[in-house]
Amino acid sequence: MNRDQPLKISFRKLKPDAQTPSRAYAGDAGYDLAAAEGATLGPGERAVVGTGVAVVVPEGYAGLVLPRSGLSVCHGVSLVNAPGLVDPGYRGELKVPLINHDRAETFEVVPGMRIAQLVLVRAAEALFVEAETLEESADGRGEGGFGSSGTG
Questions:
Q1: Which residue positions in the chain have pLDDT lower than 70?
Q2: What is the pTM of this model?
Q3: Contacts of 131 (CB under 8 A, 6+ apart)
Q4: Which residues form the dUTPase-like domain (predicted)?
């Protein structure tokens, strides 16, 4: 694929008022997904909100559904399973599992509200080969995991 050409994504509106995924700014990586239905999320509550849109993610790619920073920072609303994964074979409605982390305020999702963003990334084809030992990493990290690099 020519990197200068945009990736063509076929999509279908499953509801008449569904919005086409779109970017706020030309250089944005994420395409905003809008709610096609309303939902009320009390403090700590979750809801799966439909977008009314189905897309075809091309072979060799994956669609990652990510939170919108404005909803997270301003309202405490995020995705239950961030990132959500859209595989190339999936043809159903894109649905967004939201959670309200705010301890006091109820959050209202209204149709047309941008609730998540879709980012398309290349997905490598891999062949997993079992080994008795693993070669050392070039940076020396080894088995250092959570917190191994410190906080400072």
A1: 1-3
A2: 0.87
A3: none
A4: 18-150
